[in-house]
Amino acid sequence: MNSYVIEGGNKLSGTVTINPSKNSAVAMLIASMMNKGTTTIGQLPDIEEVKRIIEVMESIGVKAVRTKDGKYVITTPEKFKIDRINFEAAIRTRSVIL
Question: How much is the pTM?
């Protein structure tokens, strides 16, 4: 498995191409919440697990907008609203523990 070591002090930007499987899609969505700013993710599979994770993310203040070309633009808030989490969507997904 390849790995990357990122040492702080500089702004990180770029493009990563991933396999559009459920597991990688969910991981990318969760990882996007660590970014202060906007993340664009393409090739997400149109499956319930992805939809539920997006519902949970939106319930805590994340903005997730699907563009005309099928990409998602994820914008994180200054502060997550954990007390507003959508428990019903969270219960319906196995990935919310991430």
Answer: 0.79
Distance CA 39, CA 8 (A): 19
Measured N-to-C along each axis, helices 22-32 and 48-59 cross at an angle, to the nearest 10 degrees, of 10
Record the tokens describing residue 19, joined without a space. Answer: 């396999």
Per-residue pLDDT of the chain (98 residues; tens, 9 = 90+): 677 777 778 777 777 776 677 778 888 899 999 988 899 998 888 898 999 999 999 999 999 999 999 899 999 999 999 999 999 888 888 766 65
What SS3 state is found at 63? strand
| Residue 97: C-alpha distances to residues 6, 12, 53, 62, 72 (Å) | 25, 26, 10, 17, 22
| DSSP state at residue 25 | H
Describe the chain by its helix, strand, coil percentages, rounded to 5. Answer: 30, 10, 55
